[in-house]
Queue: 3 jobs
Job 1
Amino acid sequence: ELTAYTNQSSSQSPPLKNQFISTQTVFDPLRRLPIIHNVNVTKILLVTYFRGGSTFLGDLLQQNWNSFYHFEPLHYMTVGIRIENERTEEAFRLIKHLFKCDFINVPNYIKWVSIDVHQHLFEFNKFLQNTCYFRPASCFDSLFIEQVCLRSPIQIMKVARLSMRHIEKLAVNDLNLKVVYLVRDPRGIYSSRKLMDCQI
């Protein structure tokens, strides 16, 4: 059993059961990190196009050591095309769950990102990777991920599968959301996509 800590006011909160963390382990990366109330969390939504230079910008934004980086979570819903029509509501629900650190209620997303070929999406999250470094399996445990996320004062999410007209609706419904819209010279985007010559 593992000890991760739930929120609330006391610094000695009761431990969360977690199959990946042993109570015999002296090193507990979450022990000294306080939980940040969601209203005090800075939420940044990085909106871009495929091959728009956003990976570099995302890395810059997460230079704060305990920033939590949601890298392309909508990759779970589609590959290579934008999300439109009735699926936008599903995308909004996923985004809202993640910005609330609610990984428990997105089991299909966690299951999908745990597949070997998709695990690289979590590797962009340096805070999570550093925290679960000694217990790699916990990187994909929803309880552990949630506890790490709850201790981050800054959350960054990169999306390239929603248009700005959809993002506007999402931003209006969440006054705490800061939107960064990254635009790149279309010639550079075209050249980069052609060079990659693969599905995105």
Note: Residues 87-99 form the longest helix (13 residues).
Job 2
Amino acid sequence: MSLFKSSDPEKHGDKGMSLLKGLFILAMLGIIAAVVLNQFIG
């Protein structure tokens, strides 16, 4: 993240970064959901 902020973050792939953030958030939610389900089932 610090590499992108070294120069103008808006000129770098803004759409790509937002897409990566979205995928990362979805992955985190998926992991949390899996852990919660495992807690309930197990």
Note: Helices lie at 2-5, 14-41.
Job 3
Amino acid sequence: MSEDAGTGTDCGADDAVLLFVGGPLDGRVEIRAARHGEPLPTITHVHLHDGPKVVHRYDLQELPGQAGVYTLRPPVRRPARDESVAD
């Protein structure tokens, strides 16, 4: 089967199967073709809508074989800046 044969869900022996856990991508399964190289260690998902943009980061946990799980990174709590205090 050639690389241009289609976009079906067939998974080759060297392709990676990636599962997303948590956040807006929860439950998504992605098959990453081997020709695209190794899966990235971190993926950033940005949701744009009428309000402020919402950013989620997923970190890769590799599993045996050609599989991995991207888990939602916990949010970073930043202290609110006090505008009443001069710098």
Note: Residues 1 and 12 are 10 Å apart (CA to CA).
